[in-house]
């Protein structure tokens, strides 16, 4: 009996200690300073001349026309052999270009494009890591692809949007200290001059891992002041921020999120047209940004 009581007492102390530690981990610390968000566009970075650009594109159908148009060549040694990702490299108007795609799903054996935040973040992180390690760090990262657009923000099928910021709409973490992390809003590098040059629209891109959306997502997208919606932008921006690489998105609208048609039907119907629109816009983007400083964009 005495041994049982000793064991119970010790067990109670251990559990109490665990609860105390867990509770402390989630208890706001009023005296802890709040760190400012990391900024990739530092004053020094803004004065850098852009000559080495990465373009991250999730889907093969989105990337192929652009890769073919610029005559970029596959670099099969760029990514680890275990990864599904692909890199295509070359020059355009004196600018070094690296286009990365997420490849096809082998884990689940579906063979579809690796869409979503996980492959996008990993591919971007590995790319920027490799380039920095090779003493040729990227000056700029562009996330290019298709998206859903919001009628309430003036979006129409085929519109080209440049991002002003990105955020997540499906990372709901109902713990006060974690809420800003969950939303994960990250400002894009300023591209107002480029938008005027292209006659493109500007707006926030909200990211989630589903093509459709839940009512809770809809509320979050409204809170994010989203003009367009995709499945990768916030993840790509996060990886770029980790490496201190300035970044923005070029998004072409394939479907209207707040319209009458189901998103998947409209997306498939307009994907080919949007890919051609992206092919038309991206070379103009590259022509404009190369040999310019970030504060000229």
List the helices and strands and how they pair.
Layout: H1 2-25, H2 43-46, E1 52-57, H3 60-70, E2 73-74, E3 86-92, E4 95-101, H4 117-133, E5 140-149, E6 160-168, H5 179-183, E7 186-187, H6 192-198, E8 201-207, H7 215-223, E9 226-230, H8 233-242, E10 247-256, H9 263-289
Parallel strand pairs: 1-4, 1-5, 5-10, 6-8, 8-9
Antiparallel strand pairs: 2-3, 3-4, 5-9, 6-7, 6-10
- List SSEs in N-to-C order: HHEHEEEHEEHEHEHEHEH
Mean pLDDT, to the nearest integer, reads 85
- As laid out across the biggest beta sheet, the strand order is 5-9-8-6-10
Q: Compute the CA-based radius of gyration.
A: 22 Å
Strand proportion, as a percent range, falls in: 15-25%
| Low-pLDDT stretches | 1-36
Oligomer designation = single chain
Terminal Cα separation, in Å? 77 Å
Count of strand segments: 10
Counted by DSSP, the helix tally is 9
Largest sheet: 5 strands, mixed, barrel
Helix and strand composition category: alpha/beta
- Shape label: globular
Q: Percent of residues in helical segments?
A: 25-40%
Please give a quick description of this structure:
This protein has 297 residues and is of the alpha/beta class. The chain has helices spanning 2-25, 43-46, 60-70, 117-133, 179-183, 192-198, 215-223, 233-242, 263-289, and strands at 52-57, 73-74, 86-92, 95-101, 140-149, 160-168, 186-187, 201-207, 226-230, 247-256.
